[in-house]
Amino acid sequence: MQIKRILQEENVSYHLVEEEDVLEEGISLLQHAMVEGFTCVNENIAVYTSKELFHKTQKTSRFANKFKEAEVLHNYEELSVGDYVVHNQHGVGKYLGIVTQKQ
After folding, report:
1. What distance in Å separates the CA atoms of residue 4 and residue 28, rounded to the nearest whole number?
2. Which of 7, 17, 63, 94 has the fewest beta carbons under 10 Å from its own?
3. Whole-angstrom Cα distance, residue 88 to residue 94?
4. How far apart are the first and last CA of the chain?
5. What is the DSSP letter of 31?
6. Residues 25, 53: Cα–Cα separation, whole Å
């Protein structure tokens, strides 16, 4: 993580967090793929992506340019069994439903 190295070099304290962690005050680092950052004004939280911090983007998948006109799915409940779906890294597939598995 490039930001981790920079913070260490500048002697700035930070916390490494997982998605389910409760955030502490200060700088928290989460390694997670996100398109863009966001702010939560009432909670006093700002989230930045590496693209926003370093003006670099990760490699795009081999399918990224082929499906620019596709409709973005906001909720899996919008799908019907048999619908064709396109994943930006895995390609084209057919939605077969959701199955709950025992842990």
Report:
1. 10
2. 94
3. 14
4. 32
5. -
6. 20
Contact 14, 30 (CB under 8 A): no
**Coil, helix or strand at residue 77:** helix
Give the tokens for residue 90.
């895995």
pTM (predicted TM-score):
0.48
Residue whose tokens read 């490494």:
16
Gap between the Cα atoms of 63 and 28, Å rounded: 32
For residue 66, the model assigns a pLDDT of 59
In whole angstroms, what is the distance from residue 95 CA to residue 82 CA?
Answer: 5
Asked whether 4 and 29 are in contact (CB, 8 A), the reply is: yes
| Neighbour tally for 48: CB within 10 Å | 14
Token digits of residue 46: 């700002």
Name the H helices within 1-103.
2-9, 50-54
Q: What is the mean pLDDT of each run of 10 residues along the chain (103 residues)?
A: 87 90 88 85 87 74 58 79 80 85 79
